[in-house]
């Protein structure tokens, strides 16, 4: 009788583990589907600072009005960027939580202006 009880407990634990894994998978899929990019930034200005700092461009922009994201990625390319799927960001700006700033400034070192 004790052996049946052990199988019963193991069976219930197995079902609980499978259910937990399914909940995690469903939550992950739902989270991915609900992710939408924030509105585009506005007022982007790129200033050539290479005369002071070789190969550097100063970027500034007005922050997005969205509050449900944590950072900005900066991408660089010699061609117009229409999709970032195959690109790697060259920088990540993590100060999105600072609501006191009016514009974000970032220096991107090492860019060739050629």
Describe the structure.
The chain is of the alpha+beta class. The chain has 2 domains: 1-35; 42-108, no CATH class. It has 1 helix and 5 strands; from the N terminus they run αβββββ. The protein has one helix at residues 2-34; strands spanning 42-48, 57-62, 72-74, 91-93, 104-108. The strands form 2 sheets. Strands 1-2-5 form a 3-stranded antiparallel beta sheet, with no helix packed on it. Strands 3-4 form a two-stranded antiparallel ribbon. Strand 1 (42-48) and strand 2 (57-62) form a beta hairpin. The longest helix is centred in the first third of the chain and has 33 residues, at 2-34. The model is unreliable at 97-105 (pLDDT under 50).
Briefly summarize what is shown.
It is built from one helix and five strands, in the order αβββββ.
Q: How would a crystallographer describe the biggest sheet?
A: 3 strands, antiparallel
Strand line-up of the largest beta sheet: 1-2-5
Determine the N-to-C terminus distance: 81 Å
How helix-rich are the residues, as a percent range?
Answer: 25-40%
Low-confidence stretches: 97-105
On the 0 to 100 scale, the average pLDDT is 64
Shape: elongated
Order of helices and strands: HEEEEE
Can you count the beta strands?
Answer: 5
> What does the radius of gyration come to?
24 Å
- Number of alpha- plus pi-helical segments: 1
């Amino acid at each position: 009788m004790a052996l049946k009880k052990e199988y019963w407990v193991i069976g219930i634990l197995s079902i609980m583990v499978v259910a937990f894994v399914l909940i995690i998978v469903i939550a992950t899929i739902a989270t991915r589907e609900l992710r939408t990019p924030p509105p585009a930034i506005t007022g982007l200005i790129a200033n050539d600072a290479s005369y002071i700092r070789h190969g550097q461009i100063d970027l500034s922009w007005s922050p997005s009005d969205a509050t449900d994201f944590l950072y900005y990625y900066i991408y660089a390319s010699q061609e117009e960027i229409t999709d970032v799927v195959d690109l790697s960001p060259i920088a990540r700006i993590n100060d999105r939580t600072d609501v006191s700033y009016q514009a974000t400034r970032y220096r991107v070192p090492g860019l060739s202006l050629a």
